[in-house]
Structure formats: structure tokens, C-alpha cells
Write a structure and sequence with these properties.
Chain lengths: ~300, ~350
């Protein structure tokens, strides 16, 4: 085994690269915590990232304004999350199937409109990036830190957070205390949609365009990170950082002898190990994935 | 039926929105797919893996398990089939073909068994595990194709021996001229027959049904629930694993990365629409086959992704209307008891 080049790993550019890779995992992952704490599994995150990236690209292209692009991306995320909510919370349909169908939907509709708007099945026109904001720092990085702090406080220290957790742990009890379980669950899913949409916006700005299927499984990795992080926003963020580091590492040291496919597998293998209970206990919210049936 | 019609209507809105005549587009879609033997052959070719992944999801459903992992099982099975085909090139066809089929089944079954064993032994949820296993499978097959059995400048495996080919129907019979429709369709039909026989005519099938309907009852009547879970998952994976034969042995004669085109996920929709009935699965798979091939025939008028959108909408409406059906039954039941 060759010696690891420690000074290169601690290089500041490498660190920044790791953080940049982590952002599109972290945002949907923290979003997933909101959704699942409320009791709704949101596999549609993958599609939301994709739709968020697409709408950000379209919005930025037509307005020439990066901020308006972000608004478009986040709106698209909220919209898909809203559809997921209606189907799974109001219609009480299977959350997994709905999520998968929405992912297929997002894949189709982004490509469909990519062809119509940009006359290309693979990518959009080039768009402006975040550098047009002329900031001395990376705004998304700062945003991530703020969102992480607010999320943690919201979930564990506010009335809304308590109600959200109650809706996911024991909806019957929450209901008997006069909490509108379904409304709280809607809120959780919509927040996850907004955050994943924001993650999509980052993807579009990083590449200065939308490319077909650019979410590339990140929504699922975000879900995996949330499980490894044990349904806690800080834990999820730490897991995302680990994945970001692993990916950054393979990019930096292409000749390290570790095939990239094994690094790709890492999040998924870890998730399976955590779920099997080999690393502490994995406790999802008790009513996670179960539609709430109000008794008359 | 309602979901199909509604989704076609929603699709029509999309088509109209980009300035095309929906009626014309749909007319072309159906005439090009069902109007000639070439189109029919293409549809049945597309339907073949969907029948098998549909069966895979359905048999797991019957046991009360949700198999989202057909995509990964299909990929592992397909690689196993291809590996046998390009490794044992000197074997005669009457050994190599059964071996390749068996390899596909076993590959898929073993892969699904990871989730089955984890569910039975540790109680970890098969839904998340099968999703994770899909991604691991794709990465693993990509590793095997790119690093272990590379063919320079391609993303596919070496070609399999002609002795492992499942012949195309146009070569055998002269009809379906030009379409890649091949003998693996018969394997898919045989799998349907097997599933029907197994689930409705054997004691094992009875046990699997009981497990799916009421796990408590299954435990109470001293069934070996853990064994049943593992067995059902393995069978599910086996069916999905056979899905690779259509592309590998029947069409291109090698495994190419990305060949599965989400057939594993569409299998979920197939099983849902067919309500897990093996004969219904054939019909539902053909319906999705029409959509998939139909998308290519209308590509000059409308981007073919309209079909992907339609597929998603069919699923979403399908799972949503169940709620209304259940609700109206509940109301009728209540009205009935109130009157009686």
C-alpha cells in the first residue's frame, strides 16, 4: 500500500472541492430529514434535483438573472414536492411508488422541454453562474451552513419541529392533541422540495448549463446519507461530507488504484450496513412511510 | 383503464401545448406499433423484459414484500448470462443456452437474496435495501465491463458465442421482419405459467399468499416465515435476472451498459396495473411496450420523452384512484349497514 499524500489531502483547493461536491448532497439530505421526520418518505428528491437544475437553467437563461433562476429552481422543487404530498398524504398512496414515478416524470419532462426550448436532447444553452453576483465567498456554502443551523433548531427546538416529529412518531397522539397531522406533513415535504430544488440550482450553476440526467443519483445518495446520519440534520450533513470527501479523493488521485466504481458504491453499502444495525441502532420515525388515517 | 385514458388526455395537453395535433400523434403511434408485423415485433421485444420484471415485483408483492430492486437484479442476471456466453464458447448450444438461462436466474436470485436475507435475519427494510442494491449492482456491472472484461473503445462485454444465441423470430419464421423480437419472449411466457402454477396450485404458493395477506396468521400456523421471505425474494430476483436474455442472448449478443432502460422500475408499474396477476402482467407489459416503441415512431412530431411522461402519469393516477375506489366502497358499505 502506497503512502497517502497527506499534504495534498490537506490542501485548501482539495478541501474546497470536497465542499463543492458535498453541497448537492447536503441540501436534499437535510430536506429528506424534514420530510421523514413528519412521516413521509420522499424518494422524489432525485427528480426534484433534476427539475430544480433544469428550471434554474431555464430561468437564468431567459431572465439573465441568477437570483431569478434560483427562484425558478426552488419553485419547481416545491411544485413536485406538492404533487408528492397530494398523492401520498391526501390520497394516501404508496410513497415509494409515487416517488419513483415522479423521478421518471422529472426525467421525461426535463428532456422533453430541453428539446423544445434548446433544441437539444442532452443540454441547455450556457447560463450565467454565481460569479455574476460578485461575492467574495461562495454564497451556497454560507447558505448551507445557515440552513443546517436553522434546520437543527427548527426540528429540535421549536413548536413546529415538535409537531413535525410527533406527526412522524405517533400521528394518532398528535391528532388527539389537536395537531393537523396532514398539514404538518405537507409542510415537511414542501420544505424538502425547496431544499432539493436549491440543490438542483447549485448543480446548474456549477456546470453553467443543464445536462440530461445531471442529478446522477444524488437524490438517492442524499437519502442514504440521511439514513446513515440517523434522521438527524447534523448526522446527515456529516455523512454527505464523508461522501463528498470520498468522491473528491478519487478525482484528485485517479491513480490511487481504487476503481471509481467502488467509491460510487460506498454510500449504498454503508446504508445497508447501518440499516442492518451493525453500527448502532437505526431508528426511523415510527410512522415513517405510513399514511395517516384519521379516525372519526 | 381510467388511468390509461386520463394519462393519454394529459399527454394530449402536452402535445397540443407544443403546437401538434394530439389526435394525429396518437393515430401515428398506434398505427405504427400495431399496424404491421414489424411494429408488433418491436412492441413484443420491448415487452419481454417488462413481463419478467413485472413478475418479479408481483411475486414479492404476493409475499408482502416490496421489491424495488428488479433493476439491479436484471443487470446482475444479464451479466451472468453474458459471462457464461462469452466464457464457455466451445460448448454446444444445447448445453450453453440452458446454462446461460440458468446463470441469469441464479445471478438475479443471489442478488435479491442479499435483501431477502437482511430482511429475514435483521428485519432491515427491503425497500431501502433493494434501492441501494440497484446502485451497487450498476456500479459493479460497470466495473466488470470496464475493468475486468473490457472491449477497447466500447462499453460492452465481449460477444457471446453464437451457440448461446436465442434466435430472432424473423430468422426462424420470416414474419416480424427486421424486428429483434426473439425466443426469450417464450421464456417470459413460461415464467408467467410457472408463477401461476406456483402461486395458485402448490402448497408453497399457498404459504406465500398467506404470508402476504397476513403475516401473523402465517407465523401462528407454524409456517417458516423467514424461509418464505428469503425464498420469495430469491424467486423475485430470479425472474428479474432472466430479463437480460432478451437483450444479451436475443438481440445484441453482448451486454452493454445502460441496456436495461429502467425496465426494473417500469416492472413496478406493470405489476401494479396487473394487480399481480401473471396473465394481466403480459397485457400490461405489452401496453408499456406499445408506449416505449411508440415513442420512437412519433419522435419526428413530438420529442419521444412524451412517453416517459405518460408512463409516470399512468403510475401516479393508478395509485391515486385506489384511494377513491376504497373510499366509495367504504361509503357503500356504511350505507348498506345503516339501511339493513
Amino acid at each position: 500500500m502506497q503512502e497517502l499524500p497527506m499534504d495534498e489531502i490537506l490542501d485548501i483547493a482539495f478541501l474546497l472541492q470536497t465542499l463543492r461536491i458535498t453541497i448537492p448532497y447536503l441540501l436534499p439530505s437535510v430536506g429528506a430529514v424534514f420530510s421523514e421526520k413528519g412521516g413521509v418518505i420522499n424518494i422524489a428528491l432525485e427528480g426534484i434535483l433534476l427539475a430544480g437544475a433544469f428550471c434554474t437553467a431555464v430561468g437564468t437563461f431567459y431572465t439573465g438573472n441568477v437570483l431569478l433562476g434560483i427562484v425558478c429552481g426552488v419553485s419547481a422543487g416545491v411544485l413536485i414536492a406538492y404533487i408528492h404530498s397530494i398523492i401520498t398524504i391526501t390520497f394516501k398512496a404508496n410513497q415509494i411508488v409515487s416517488g419513483i414515478a415522479l423521478n421518471i416524470f422529472a426525467l421525461g419532462i426535463t428532456k422533453f422541454f430541453c428539446k423544445i426550448l434548446f433544441n437539444s436532447s442532452s443540454n441547455s444553452a450556457r447560463i450565467e453562474g454565481l460569479e455574476t453576483l460578485n461575492l467574495p465567498f461562495n454564497p451556497f456554502l454560507l447558505l448551507c451552513i445557515i440552513i443546517l443551523a436553522i434546520s437543527y433548531i427548527t426540528i429540535y427546538r421549536t413548536k413546529f419541529g415538535l409537531r413535525l416529529r410527533a406527526a412522524g412518531e405517533n400521528p394518532e397522539a398528535a391528532d388527539s392533541l389537536g395537531i393537523n397531522v396532514n398539514r404538518i406533513r405537507y409542510a415537511g415535504v414542501l420544505i424538502s422540495g425547496a431544499l432539493a430544488g436549491l440543490g438542483g440550482a447549485w448543480l446548474a450553476f456549477e456546470q453553467h448549463s443543464f445536462t440530461d440526467g445531471m442529478s446522477a443519483g444524488r437524490g438517492y445518495i442524499a437519502l442514504a446519507a440521511m439514513i446513515i446520519g440517523k434522521w438527524n440534520p447534523l448526522g446527515a450533513a456529516a455523512a454527505c461530507l464523508l461522501f463528498g470527501f470520498a468522491e473528491s479523493f478519487t478525482l484528485q488521485f485517479q491513480n490511487s488504484g481504487i476503481p471509481t466504481q467502488f467509491i460510487q458504491m460506498l454510500p449504498y453499502v454503508l446504508t445497508i450496513i447501518v440499516l442492518a444495525g451493525f453500527i448502532g441502532k437505526a431508528n426511523p420515525p415510527a410512522a415513517d412511510g405510513i399514511p395517516f388515517e384519521k379516525k372519526d | 383503464m381510467i388511468s390509461v385514458i386520463t394519462s393519454l388526455l394529459i399527454g394530449a395537453i402536452f402535445i397540443a401545448a407544443i403546437g401538434q395535433n394530439p389526435l394525429e400523434v396518437y393515430l401515428q403511434l398506434f398505427s405504427q406499433t400495431l399496424g404491421n408485423t414489424y411494429g408488433i415485433g418491436q412492441v413484443l421485444f420491448k415487452a419481454t423484459p417488462l413481463i419478467l420484471t413485472g413478475l418479479s415485483v408481483a411475486i414479492a408483492f404476493k409475499a408482502g414484500l416490496f421489491n424495488i430492486g428488479a433493476e439491479g437484479q436484471l443487470n446482475i442476471g444479464a451479466f451472468a448470462s453474458a459471462w457464461v456466453g462469452f466464457t464457455f464458447v466451445t460448448m454446444p448450444w444445447y448445453i450453453l443456452i440452458p446454462l446461460s438461462i440458468l446463470a441469469g436466474f441464479i445471478g438475479g436470485a443471489l442478488w435479491a437474496s442479499i435483501a431477502g436475507v437482511l430482511k429475514a435475519k435483521f428485519g432491515s427494510h427491503e425497500v431501502i435495501n433493494t434501492i441501494m442494491l440497484n446502485f451497487i449492482a450498476l456500479a459493479l456491472v460497470s466495473y466488470l465491463v470496464n475493468n475486468i472484461y473490457p472491449v477497447p473503445a466500447t462499453i460492452h462485454t465481449p460477444e457471446i458465442s453464437p451457440n448461446a444465441w436465442l434466435q430472432r423470430f424473423d430468422v426462424l419464421t420470416g414474419i416480424f421482419k427486421g424486428s429483434p423480437f426473439n425466443l426469450s419472449f417464450l421464456i417470459a411466457l413460461a415464467a408467467c405459467l410457472l408463477m401461476y402454477y406456483l402461486l395458485w396450485k402448490t402448497p408453497l404458493g399457498y404459504q406465500i399468499n398467506t404470508l402476504g395477506l397476513n403475516k401473523g396468521a402465517a407465523e401462528y400456523s407454524k409456517m417458516n416465515v423467514k424461509k418464505l421471505i428469503m425464498l420469495s425474494m430469491a424467486l423475485a430476483g430470479g425472474f428479474a435476472g432472466l430479463g437480460g436474455l432478451n437483450f444479451v442472448n436475443g438481440y445484441k449478443h453482448y451486454l452493454e451498459l445502460g441496456f436495461s432502460e429502467n425496465a426494473g422500475y417500469i416492472g413496478i408499474a406493470v405489476a401494479l396495473i396487473a394487480r399481480n396477476n401473471p396473465w394481466g402482467i403480459i397485457i400490461a407489459a405489452i401496453f408499456f411496450g406499445i408506449l416505449e416503441y411508440g415513442g420512437l415512431t412519433i419522435n419526428t412530431l413530438v420529442p419521444k420523452e412524451i412517453i416517459t411522461i405518460l408512463q409516470a402519469i399512468v403510475i401516479l393516477i393508478m395509485i391515486s384512484i385506489n384511494h377513491f375506489i376504497a373510499q366509495s366502497r367504504y361509503k357503500k358499505f356504511n350505507a348498506g349497514t345503516a339501511n339493513g
